[in-house]
Amino acid sequence: MSHNSFGHLFRVTTWGESHGPAIGCVVDGVPPRLALTEADIQPFLDRRRPGQSKFVTQRQEPDQVRILSGVFEGLTTGTPIALVIENQDQRSKDYGEIKDRFRPGHADLTYELKYGIRDYRGGGRSSARETAMRVAAGAIARRMLGTEVTLRGALVNIGGDAVDRAAWDWAEVERNEFWCPDPAAAARWEAKLLEARKAGSSLGAVIEIVAEGAPPGLGAPVYGKLDAELAGALMSINAVKGVEIGEGFSAAALSGEGNADEMRMEPDGRVRFLSNHAGGILGGISTGQPIVARFAVKPTSSILAPRRAVDKHGQEVEVMTKGRHDPCVGIRAVPVGEAMVACVLADHLLRHRAQNPDAPSQARLPRN
Amino acid sequence: MSHNSFGHLFRVTTWGESHGPAIGCVVDGVPPRLALTEADIQPFLDRRRPGQSKFVTQRQEPDQVRILSGVFEGLTTGTPIALVIENQDQRSKDYGEIKDRFRPGHADLTYELKYGIRDYRGGGRSSARETAMRVAAGAIARRMLGTEVTLRGALVNIGGDAVDRAAWDWAEVERNEFWCPDPAAAARWEAKLLEARKAGSSLGAVIEIVAEGAPPGLGAPVYGKLDAELAGALMSINAVKGVEIGEGFSAAALSGEGNADEMRMEPDGRVRFLSNHAGGILGGISTGQPIVARFAVKPTSSILAPRRAVDKHGQEVEVMTKGRHDPCVGIRAVPVGEAMVACVLADHLLRHRAQNPDAPSQARLPRN
Amino acid sequence: MSHNSFGHLFRVTTWGESHGPAIGCVVDGVPPRLALTEADIQPFLDRRRPGQSKFVTQRQEPDQVRILSGVFEGLTTGTPIALVIENQDQRSKDYGEIKDRFRPGHADLTYELKYGIRDYRGGGRSSARETAMRVAAGAIARRMLGTEVTLRGALVNIGGDAVDRAAWDWAEVERNEFWCPDPAAAARWEAKLLEARKAGSSLGAVIEIVAEGAPPGLGAPVYGKLDAELAGALMSINAVKGVEIGEGFSAAALSGEGNADEMRMEPDGRVRFLSNHAGGILGGISTGQPIVARFAVKPTSSILAPRRAVDKHGQEVEVMTKGRHDPCVGIRAVPVGEAMVACVLADHLLRHRAQNPDAPSQARLPRN
Amino acid sequence: MSHNSFGHLFRVTTWGESHGPAIGCVVDGVPPRLALTEADIQPFLDRRRPGQSKFVTQRQEPDQVRILSGVFEGLTTGTPIALVIENQDQRSKDYGEIKDRFRPGHADLTYELKYGIRDYRGGGRSSARETAMRVAAGAIARRMLGTEVTLRGALVNIGGDAVDRAAWDWAEVERNEFWCPDPAAAARWEAKLLEARKAGSSLGAVIEIVAEGAPPGLGAPVYGKLDAELAGALMSINAVKGVEIGEGFSAAALSGEGNADEMRMEPDGRVRFLSNHAGGILGGISTGQPIVARFAVKPTSSILAPRRAVDKHGQEVEVMTKGRHDPCVGIRAVPVGEAMVACVLADHLLRHRAQNPDAPSQARLPRN
Questions:
Q1: How do the pLDDT tens digits run along chain D, 368 residues long?
Q2: Nearest to B78 among D1, D355, D357 (CB)
Q3: Tally: H helices and E strands in chain B
Q4: H and E: helices and strands count for chain C
Q5: C69 is an annotated ligand-binding site residue
Q6: Contact status of D118 with chain B (Cβ, < 8 Å)
Q7: Quick one: pLDDT at residue D290?
Q8: Residue partners of A35: CB distance under 8 A and separation at least 6
Q9: Which of A145, B309, B364, D225 has the fewest CB atoms in 10 Å of its CB?
Q10: Concatenated DSSP letters for A200-263?
Q11: Which helix (H) or strand (E) element contains residue C197?
Q12: Residues B178, B33: Cα–Cα separation, whole Å
């Protein structure tokens, strides 16, 4: 048991604080002889990297990852892979303001109550900076999943303004600064966020992750369910307040008939579902259909508007955040969400293979 | 690692199939010298028990729990507590219909693809019958939490029809057959469900669990977050498709100002929050405020209307369910949700105590 | 984490006290579609069963195991297998004598200091009765290992009197009451133990377990080493005070040359070792050679001779044990040791397969 | 589950290869507000450091540890502590000789069979270099145990030549190059090892670790036993082939009377044992007496004498080791053994406190 480890057979342990000398992680359980270099990981980090657009924090971090172990002559060896990123832009600003104050929506108060001490610089361990290591681990997980699995994320809602699903275009996702699959929505969001930034305010968001091509059989009854572990994984991302699989909360409003994913047979023996309300998971186990998960990110708590708060000495104070911060942390959560889903799938792939080495890799039935 | 265990220091392992001789669980990690007898567990099982109203499955199970170990002369001994419930009403019906057919919305297909075998009788391991052991374990968890913690659940939405929060009355919850805190909603739901049952249809639901009085400091960065583990726990319940903490998905539509939970000091040194959008958790750690979690349950997949499906032999078939089933499985999920939250809190209480034995039991600050 | 669970992917959780209504275990992670009935488990329990010879405790327990879950129509389903044995001969004797007294060599004092309560009847949880469930789980582990693996144990030393290794005959092991591979030693031990029993004394023993045919590659650097887990597993058996792999403590007296296991090639490409000082494990990973582990069991602490002790009230007392007890608990430890080795191997087989599905099943090298 | 993690609540994950850029570890679960700097860890690393005497490997590594996270202003914060040591003396020697050859007694063959790849430089992951991180983690564990616990190790046997226990003097341990408590033995060993080194040979050793002042109650039935976890921990150290607790294998030769640790009461209410055959552990739980563990280390496998071996291509070869190596790896295993015992005790301290916060810190009984 470890509070800073994630996964079971594909196991990630992260460490590091926002303003410490470095952040890092150890990824254990990776099969041997996978081709892996920093160049396989860096692009994913670059996608998450701060300072790239006006809609995310302006902290400048090159986030150059280094592999310190577990890879030999370009191949994984089966031993733990240590990754490290040195913190560069640890702006030596005056933290006097938040040193003793507990900002609303932040982990300041709870860390203090739990530990009686906290590294307040940039949020310390509670900083979203930790998610860089999730993204790095996710890149390794993707290597394990192979090219059969297409794992993508998109922002589907900012501040209550949702994308038009009829206009969904995955190619668009890489074309705007919001990972938005709907160009019209992206345009609206741009205006919205500029306004929010100007007002020193912030907005929440909803992210959707879709994994296509994952084999059936991932997950297990009853506490190793794939959806249960996806929910835990996504909820562990900073600022996430809700997680859905497939139809999610909308399922509550459906009838049994409306929610049923009917099935037919393909000529080649594969099962075809006529819908995917289940989000690719039945009884906690993947069906072979696209796995669909969504999560809600609250608006950034660091805002310009003064808020009533308390300090370490039990005094009532007002706080407002001046520094560089994301007006919508949900944007940078897209690659993080992808990474978490990749890690969960990689872990379950190993677990499934251990117990069921002969299980089919597709939802295919014998025809006799 | 175990697919059928839950929790870390308070650790529950369940076993059993719907139509096997018995179901049971082992609860490990319970502190010694807690008063515990079957009478402390049975009332919670009785709340979940099938066959009690016309809105839930008519299977008749007395669900009498027996303690087989870990309790001596009415006190826990610190050794594992084994609980068992014998299955009684294993109706010897003809399972020919579902033996080889994969019902939409059920785990039939995924179990078959994963394991190449399944106990099809009543859903086997995927049956909601397993949740009886969660409820039993939850009763032990409640003992550990003590009387300071008030942990209650309510149904807040059936088929898209939500309760009026202004009319919320916890006392009502025990007065109707839906655990509904709003009598007007309960009346509407009764009509709705009678209609659904008559039509052989089913409805989804949303459940809300509230834990008041839990100490601050439960949970931990960054993968042992309280909200992450609550999400995993609740998503592991059969038919659950979404989980929220506090404001949940609604947070996506809020501004940073609107979502901030401002703080003031009580004269006695306690921190008072002016709102609870966070659902009692910041940075993955409890604040001392009420912990609020919600989860969505899909409509029962077993319905009268024929649905297109496939069978074990790769043939296209139609299935319809004739047996006894819940028109709204969400109703019986209320005590199960309570139990899962109780188990997560008990587990985190032990984990918190191990690392932080001197942490305060209330959100209280020194005033100096 | 659980104090009463063992293994990772093949995971055993045991429960029960010596004089409670039953003892049992849950075995999770077993692959599906293995043929398994009670008849596959019972013979191993019968080997461990008390009351079978004059050299072991006379408690009469039929130890009839029942499978309560995880098996359907004679095949495992991949879900947890619950086993239970009802306690029969809970002799309603007067426990007044040991109720408040802390017997030397027993867990009485430590349970009291740790938990402040203990089920003193027959030792409660610390009773060797718990090992019946290890044996039952071991029978399932053997099923997983298959017929390629020959896993056997023998008693090699009682009270300092060792077998003659030149006279080792596995067939002898089943012919005497001591699992002794050397008939001459068995005859000497018989006399020795009769004398010890008459004197109300007891003797220690050393057990050796040999697993032939296990594949190479089991185990992993650096804390999942096969030898490390065997050591933990064997040391967890009641009364065990030492564990060795291969040459064991004798290795300390050897030179590097003397301890080296040289290698040659077989014509078929298999590696042949010229000796097995390593006990089949190098760098924590199995070599494909026989895996050899030994463990030392202390003399039964329950003896007739009065010993100075203390009681619950801090009073100095004398205790002597009158009841039925093994003059040499090491004898019944043989099937238990076999079972623990089987469980460790089964667990590592799954773990190895998860990460290294393409690893060879024999120590065979490409010849090019 | 992780093959490279150790412990449960005090959890250590190590990474790194002998000739990679660095080695490191993450220590999770450390309580907050413990004073900790590199200066608290470095002295223990210096004790283990190579190149310090003519009896250990001449590799020159300053082994300067850096703390990268989890410590703020000199105090632990409760978040994971990352430690790193850069590898300096990665002698760019020609590894051609061992690149494809499987040296007897080394992990070369088993890594190859398991992973199909290995970092052969200096043994890669199987190098004793990894134990530096154990020592570093052990230093943190010692901080947690506090000054009440005196944890020391000594070499008690080299090449079959044991210390005279009557001459045991802990002060001597720091005065010679062997951690030997008996100056006469140290003198004999010096001659012995000079001879072995000259001959290109090597010798095995036995190490004893004693922890005084540890509270009673550490450990738990039945798989979380303190002795079981000590056995696993010590057996996981490179080259260890046997582990004993207290009387160890000698217990097999004792009678029940001879092995009994009788008890008397001290005037202050503490239990006094008249002997310590048990090594401070009964029923898997510490008694409050000194905890005594011993382990045997095989002679260094790297020797000058040519040995028959095989290579990657299935060819028979002869190998002899020319590089810098320890003639007795047991010497440097002393601080490693201490560290492992410290880690196990720290872990169990947390586990014990979680479940039994009110347990007494001394073996003291109420006198009424």
A1: 689 999 999 999 999 999 999 999 999 999 999 999 999 999 999 987 766 677 766 666 788 999 999 999 999 999 999 999 999 876 656 677 789 999 999 999 999 999 999 999 989 999 999 999 999 999 999 999 999 999 999 999 999 999 999 999 999 999 999 999 999 999 999 999 999 999 999 999 999 999 999 999 999 999 999 999 999 999 999 999 999 999 999 999 999 999 999 999 999 999 999 999 999 999 999 999 999 999 999 999 989 889 999 999 999 999 987 766 678 999 999 999 999 999 999 999 999 999 999 999 999 998 75
A2: D355
A3: 9, 19
A4: 9, 19
A5: no
A6: no
A7: 98
A8: A74, A75, A143
A9: B364
A10: T--B-EEEEEEEESPPTT-SBTTTB-HHHHHHHHHHTSTTEEEEEETTGGGGGGSBHHHH---E
A11: helix C183-198
A12: 36
Report which of D363, D348, D361, D318 is spatially closest to residue D148, judged by C-alpha positions: D361
Q: Tell me whether B245 touches chain A (CB under 8 Å).
A: yes
| Binding residue ranges of D for NADP(+) | 48, 54
* C-alpha–C-alpha distance, residues A66 and B184, integer Å: 61
CA atoms within 13 A on the CB side of B195: 9
Rounded-to-integer distance, Cα C82 and Cα C11, Å: 12
Q: Least CB-CB distance to C357: which of A1, A221, A353?
A: A353
Share above pLDDT 90 across residues of chain C, in percent, rounded to a whole number: 87
Helix and strand element counts for chain D (H, E): 9, 19
Kindly state the tokens that stand for C50.
């008390």
DSSP string, A147-214: TT-EEEEEEEEETTEE--GGG--HHHHTTSTT--S-HHHHHHHHHHHHHHHHTT--B-EEEEEEEESP
- In one-letter notation, the amino acid at residue B45 is L
Q: Measured in whole angstroms, how far is the alpha carbon of residue A137 from the centre of its chain?
A: 11
Alpha helices in chain D (DSSP H): 38-48, 96-99, 108-115, 131-145, 170-173, 183-198, 226-235, 256-259, 329-355
Interface contact D117-A78, CB threshold 8 A:
yes
B114 is in an annotated binding site: no
Chain D's closest residue to C245, CA to CA, is D241
The ipTM estimated for the assembled molecules is: 0.97
Binding-site residue ranges of A for FMN: 125-127, 238-239, 283, 298-302, 324
Q: How far apart are CA A118 and CA A285, in angstroms?
A: 40
Give residue-wise pLDDT tens across range D297-338: 999 998 988 999 999 999 999 998 776 667 899 999 999 999
Residue of chain C whose Cα is closest to the Cα of D238: C283
| Residue A34 to residue A76: CA distance in whole angstroms | 5
Nearest CA in chain D to C123: D283
Q: Whole-angstrom Cα distance, residue C202 to residue C188?
A: 15
CB of C223 within 8 Å of a chain D CB? The answer is: yes
- Residue ranges in chain B modelled with pLDDT below 70: 50-52, 56-59, 90-94, 323-325, 368
Query: How far apart, in whole angstroms, are the C-alpha atoms of residue A36 and residue A42?
Result: 11
In the numeric block, the tokens 């826990």 are attached to B76
Whether C307 and chain D come into contact, CB under 8 Å, resolves to yes
Q: How far is A26 from chain B (nearest CA, A)?
A: 14
Q: What is the pLDDT of residues D213-246, one digit of tens each?
A: 999 999 999 999 999 999 999 999 999 999 999 9
**Rg from Cα positions in chain A:** 21
- The overall longest dimension of chain A from CA atoms, in Å, is 76
Q: How far apart are CA B283 and CA C58, in angstroms?
A: 59
Question: Number of residue pairs across B and D with CB atoms under 8 Å?
Answer: 44
Residue with tokens 């074309």: A175
Neighbours of C148 (CB within 10 A): 11
Task: List the one residue out of D303, D301, D297, D302 whose CA is nearest residue D330.
Answer: D297
pLDDT digits (tens, 9 = 90+) for A22-72: 999 999 999 999 999 999 999 999 987 766 677 766 667 788 999 999 999
